[in-house]
Amino acid sequence: MTWTNPPPAEGPPNRRSAVAGALLRLAPRLPSFESGVVIDRALASPGLRGAAPETAARLALIAYARHVFTEYDDLLAEGYDRDSARHFVLDDLNEALSGWGAAPVPEDAEDAAEGDA
């Protein structure tokens, strides 16, 4: 009688599925059309490639909300530095996150999402 190891029940989940699952847990009310954009951003960002799926999803979500739902880019264009612009849009950012069921960004957080200049 020869013993062999049974095949694994499931291979490791692919990166997209892992990030999508994490995003669903982090922001359960995020509309599906927006979740696709956030997932794409997490997968495309060189700085998030090695991050845990939860970290990649969270940072991509924050970056997406900051650029789309706040005046962040306008403040940068007006000459504000990144930290100042982030300070001024924090309430709007947290309002968007809250609407999706996601945790807010603390006021003293130094959130450094790659590609989020």
What does this entry look like structurally?
α1 packs across α2, α1 crosses α3 and α2 crosses α3. It contains 5 helices and no strands. It is globular, with a radius of gyration of 18 Å. The longest helix has 18 residues, at 82-99. It has helices at 15-26, 32-44, 53-69, 72-77, 82-99. The chain is an all-alpha fold.
Radius of gyration, Cα only, in angstroms? 18 Å
- The strand count comes to 0
Low-confidence stretches: 5-11, 111-115
Helix fraction by DSSP (H/I, runs of at least 4) = 55-70%
Q: What sort of overall outline do the alpha carbons produce when their principal axes are compared?
A: globular
Largest sheet: none
- What is the overall pLDDT average? 88
The percentage of residues in β strands lies in under 5%
* Sheet/helix structural class: mainly alpha
Q: Count of DSSP helices?
A: 5
What key phrases describe this protein's structure?
117 residues, mainly alpha
Quick rundown:
With 117 residues, the protein is mainly α.
Q: What's the structural blueprint in terms of helices and strands?
A:
Elements (H helix, E strand, L loop, with lengths): L14 H12 L5 H13 L8 H17 L2 H6 L4 H18 L18
Helix pairs in contact: 1-2, 1-3, 2-3, 3-5
